[in-house]
Specification:
By secondary structure, the protein is of the alpha+beta class. It has 2 domains: 55 residues; 161 residues, DNA integrity scanning protein, DisA, N-terminal domain (YojJ-like (1, 3-Layer(aba) Sandwich), CATH 3.40.1700.10. It is 59% helix and 12% strand. The chain contains 13 helices and 7 strands. A 7-stranded mixed β-sheet has the order 2-4-3-1-5-6-7, sandwiched between helices. A hairpin with a 2-residue loop joins strand 3 and strand 4. Helix 3 packs antiparallel against helix 4, helix 8 packs across helix 10 and helix 8 runs antiparallel to helix 12. The longest helix has 28 residues.
Length: 301
């Protein structure tokens, strides 16, 4: 018996062909895996996910038709295959366009050519970040709604044209005044470019993401919509609850603290990690110093 098992294994092992693997084969597998992974992630976040599940059901039905030799159903499926492909392209046209736009926004090749000076400089200064945080939570305490969009690599000129041009330095007092109720500029979004407020009362595209909570209003849906269409970051202050949220990359982070909002905004500064860590250490030391002074005053009392 053992001889038969041994001979069977030996015969099958001899018939196994192990191809030679080259470096180009490994690179090719890595590229294909990368592309397939990102396609699946893209499908998961769009309407294509529901269509894919429906397509799996149809393929399962066609498999049963092939097993039981249902020639009429197979003939209909064969003739309507090209029509179904055209229908899918039409239905997914907004998602396909958005995916191609995002692919063009990556700037894969130009990122390697960017100068070190631009990386060291950063896109938004610490003063701008401080003023945004201060204004956001000041408006949140009195439940003043706000929508602030920060431009990154992709230009927001298309949305900037829908509003009123301002071109002013960033300050918490100016932002609070812009979003104050019953003022001419309070409705719509404010767009930032670098350390300047470039436009106000801008209109943004609404997100059609069905996974978003139905409790979210137009302001939050507009913030998610612009983050899906561009690589910008948007800060939202809720008029109903006063909570501060951030929309980035199609995701919404709600109920942020001041430190949480600051960390989100530091992502768009494009600063080196060493400089960012230095800023965190300085702030933590400052907080400890303030706590020490408060404890000292309490002890004196």
């Amino acid at each position: 018996m053992f001889d038969r098992v041994y001979s069977f294994i030996q015969e099958n092992i001899e018939n196994i062909h192990i191809p030679t693997i080259k470096v180009t084969d490994v690179v090719e597998i890595a590229i294909i895996s990368f592309v397939v992974y990102h396609i699946m992630v893209w499908i998961r976040k769009t309407k294509a996910w529901s269509l894919l599940k429906g397509l799996i059901v149809i393929l399962g039905f066609l498999l049963l038709a092939a097993i039981f030799n249902m020639s009429t159903i197979l003939w209909i499926a064969e003739k309507s295959f090209s029509v179904l492909l055209m229908v899918m392209v039409v239905v997914l046209q907004p998602e396909l366009r958005r995916a191609l736009e995002q692919l063009g926004q990556k700037n894969i090749f130009f990122s390697f050519l960017s100068s070190d000076a631009n990386k060291q400089k950063g896109r938004y200064s610490d003063h701008t970040i401080d003023e945004i945080v201060k204004a956001s939570f000041a408006m949140g305490r009195v439940k003043t709604g706000a929508l602030m969009v920060f431009e990154r690599n992709e230009t927001l000129a298309e949305y900037e044209k829908t509003g009123i041009q301002i071109d002013a330095a960033v300050s918490s007092q100016l932002l609070i005044n812009i979003f104050e109720h019953n003022t001419p500029l309070h409705d719509g979004a404010v767009i930032f470019r670098g350390d300047r407020i470039v436009s106000a009362t801008c209109y943004l595209p609404l997100s059609d993401n069905r996974n978003l909570s139905k409790a979210l209003g137009t302001r939050h849906r507009a913030a998610v919509g612009i983050s899906e269409a561009t690589d910008s970051l948007t800060v939202i202050v809720s008029e109903e609850t006063g909570k501060v949220s951030v929309a980035y990359g199609g995701d919404l982070s709600s109920g942020l603290t001041q430190e949480g909002l600051r960390e989100k905004l530091e992502m768009i500064q494009d600063k080196p990690q060493e400089e960012t860590k230095r800023g965190w250490l300085e702030r933590s030391r400052g907080d400890k110093a303030e706590k020490g002074e408060r404890n000292g005053k309490k002890a004196d009392k």
